[in-house]
Protein 1
Amino acid sequence: MALPAVLGVPDSTLGIVLGAAWLVVLGVAVYQYASGNRSREQFYMVACMGSFWLAYSLLQVSSAVSGTVEIGVVSLAAGSFFVGVVAGLRWRERRRSDTENDVAV
């Protein structure tokens, strides 16, 4: 990655910072959805993007560890990626059903 090389920041440090930031974004999205301040469609969109970025960040962190910890971090990244795919499919399905309802009216 060119940005860390230019700034002199290791990939693992950047991954930790980005991972923490995306965990905060996902936490705020869950809170807003649970309190009724965010629609389900918006929640799925944020969950999709946040999960993909969290997976990327975890893969950056995995470069700094080894052994079973690395396997655990990579497994978390794979799980986060899977959650992003599912959230993206649900977001797409939700948008499609909203569009069909608009056309039917």
Protein 2
Amino acid sequence: MSLHDRLRPWHALMVAVFVLGSGLSLFRAGDYAVAALFEAVVSGLFAVVVFQFTVGNLWGYAVEYRNAGGRWTDPVFVAPFAVALALAALVAVWTGEPVSGAWAGFWVFAVAAALLAVGVSFVAGYRNPEA
């Protein structure tokens, strides 16, 4: 199997995130010393981890909902996104820091999706399987 067959667009996206994270770190440092290069590599790797964690969780949520028979246009599916985006915008405007808004939005999404998953499992448990 050639390398081209094993590389997917997801890998290219992770490389792009790594290059962007490393490049921003080097740009902020304004220096190309060994310590700055090491810090840039660590920053790039951290950016990849954060990217995989957030995008991976969002993608997993979407795929699992779809595999359970839902559609991505269902209000139940869209609700955690809507709540998270609304709160993220509110926190970003209130604090004046977009990063705080994004952080709050992510955790609100995680809690809302978890509560929704528990609620759906609870309701599905009481459904008549013969209906």
